[in-house]
Design brief:
Elements: E1 3-8, E2 11-16, H1 26-30, E3 37-42, E4 47-49, E5 57-63, E6 66-71, E7 77-83, E8 88-89, E9 103-106, E10 110-116, H2 117-126, H3 128-154, H4 157-168, E11 180-181, H5 186-193, H6 197-209, E12 213-215, E13 219-221, H7 226-230
Antiparallel strand pairs: 1-2, 3-10, 4-9, 5-8, 5-10, 6-7, 6-9, 11-13, 12-13
Helix pairs in contact: 2-3, 4-5, 5-6
Length: 232
Amino acid sequence: MVMKVIVNPGKTKSKIKPKKSRAFNAQSFLDSAGVARKVVRYRRLEKVYAQGDPNTGVKYIQEGGVKLTVVNEAGKEAVVAILGPGDFFGEGCLAGQQICMGTATAITPTSILSIEKKEMLRMLRAERTLSDRFLSYILSRNIRIEQDLIDQLFNSSEKRLARTLLLLARYGDESLPKKILVGVSQEMLAEMIGTTRPRVNFFMNKFRKLGFIHYNGGLQIHKSLLSVVLHD
């Protein structure tokens, strides 16, 4: 207990300085494991869950990367998203979605914090910091989905590829200075932008020759690639 003595003219009195409550640390919570939340490690190409599985909780990526795919009735597969550290998925359970609408697969060795639905709902109600962070993420991803649709409808495959590479490299996120993509194949990129692998290969070679990208133990993206997106 800390005692603070305040001296006034003619009298002296002591005042107990109240102990401040420790602020909730959203990152510490997300990086922890507990009874209703546990960290699971997945090997490369190991499924986190499959399309049609029960959707029982929210997932948070601590390390690695995850590919989200869907398969239609004819058996055709499409890549919906590539997620990395700091991303949530499986949040549909919070809105009553009882089954997984797609398949989540680790594209590199990956650590995922799995949070049960009841625990996530409790924490969202109890912890404002976590709630704000989660809401911000969901809104940002909703905006991203709308932009993806516009991109798919109006832009060329070259622009779509450039934009996808910048997004995967977390362009604009100052906390991630190294713009390196690991485990993302040209097949995945082709499925994401709606074109063929040879077409992706053609543009990747073009970007490399122009100095927009280069390979160094992975794919490194330079800010100059933005010129392709902005060019009319």
